[in-house]
Write a structure and sequence with these properties.
Helix content is about 85%, strand content about 0%. By secondary structure, the chain is mainly alpha-helical.
Length: about 120
């Protein structure tokens, strides 16, 4: 299936953010029901980033059928940038510390690449 890069990127990001929303809703329910610790929620959120970016990379790689490493990289980076922009808009600035921000960037890009290559 031949597709354009922007179309494939939007498609993959849409599905990855739908997955993120569902998993974050399940995590918030678990937090409410089981009184999870902050460290457990942080692990769950990082896992959600990993799964969602891997899905985005996988879908984009499947759709374009070429340059899958780059597709995964682009999908993971785009996911992170949208996440960063939303955080920036909500908090009127970046409130996260730099190491945590770089870790999240590495999670998103790395798992996007893994998803893209495995497609």
């Amino acid at each position: 299936m031949e597709s354009s890069t922007p179309g494939a990127l939007l498609h993959s990001l849409l599905f990855s953010y739908i997955l993120s929303g569902l998993l974050l809703a399940a995590t918030s329910f678990a937090l409410y029901k089981f009184h999870l610790k902050e460290s457990q929620v942080a692990v769950a959120v990082n896992g959600i980033y990993l799964l969602s970016c891997a899905l985005a990379g996988f879908l984009m790689g499947k759709r374009l059928q070429k340059r899958r490493f780059f597709c995964g990289f682009l999908a993971g980076l785009s996911y992170f940038l949208v996440l960063l922009a939303a955080s920036f808009a909500i908090h009127q600035g970046i409130t996260s510390d730099t190491p945590r921000l770089l870790t999240t960037l590495a999670f998103c890009v790395g798992s996007g690449i893994i998803g893209g290559v495995s497609s």
